[in-house]
């Protein structure tokens, strides 16, 4: 039975690396995968996923208005082979309706869906895609990383252009190590409460 999985973590936990490795494992066995990434995450180029350790892959860029179920159904019907698994990077950027589309891919098209993304933003608030995935995914899997103190990091802080912790701003601002630092809840609260 196909399921919808949500692998969540803070920044720099290795989510993209895990996604690329899992897709490679399918392809190594002759199975076709479909990899999606939010179109506004163009750090590696539009429609491209790159991990911090150098793994890369082409992906299908999606916008908030795209119907992912229809895209996967079209891929299934294109004559180049069945899709064995669907992967979604930066899943926090999905809309609620797109999360339901992913559920239908698992439930009706019988294709496993592996979504990878952040749980919360730099202010400790759930992203819309993460909120919906936490609510309806069949399996939730936390990908762990650590704070500078050695405790499990569950929060992320955003840095401004001067390298100072940002306490307000738009929820979505794409960036990597240059903009975000993962912390345990205690140290995140300490930096967010500091003047």
UniProtKB/TrEMBL annotation:
GO BP, sorted A to Z: DNA biosynthetic process; thymidine metabolic process
Residues noted as binding Zn(2+) in the record, renumbered to the chain: 147, 149, 184, 187
Catalyzed chemical reaction(s): thymidine + ATP = dTMP + ADP + H(+)
Gene Ontology CC entries for this record: cytosol
GO MF entry, a single one: zinc ion binding
Binding site for ATP: 9-16, 89-92
InterPro entries: P-loop_NTPase (IPR027417), Thymidine_kinase (IPR001267), Thymidine_kinase_CS (IPR020633)
Keyword Isomerase appears in the UniProt entry: no
Localisation per UniProt entry: Cytoplasm
Active-site residues from the entry: 90 (proton acceptor)
EC number annotated for this UniProt entry: 2.7.1.21
SUPFAM superfamilies for this protein: Glucocorticoid receptor-like (DNA-binding domain) (SSF57716), P-loop containing nucleoside triphosphate hydrolases (SSF52540)
UniProt xrefs under NCBIfam families: PRK04296.1-5
Subunit structure of this chain's protein: Homotetramer.
Family designation: Belongs to the thymidine kinase family.
Protein name per the record: Thymidine kinase
Name of the gene this protein is made from: tdk
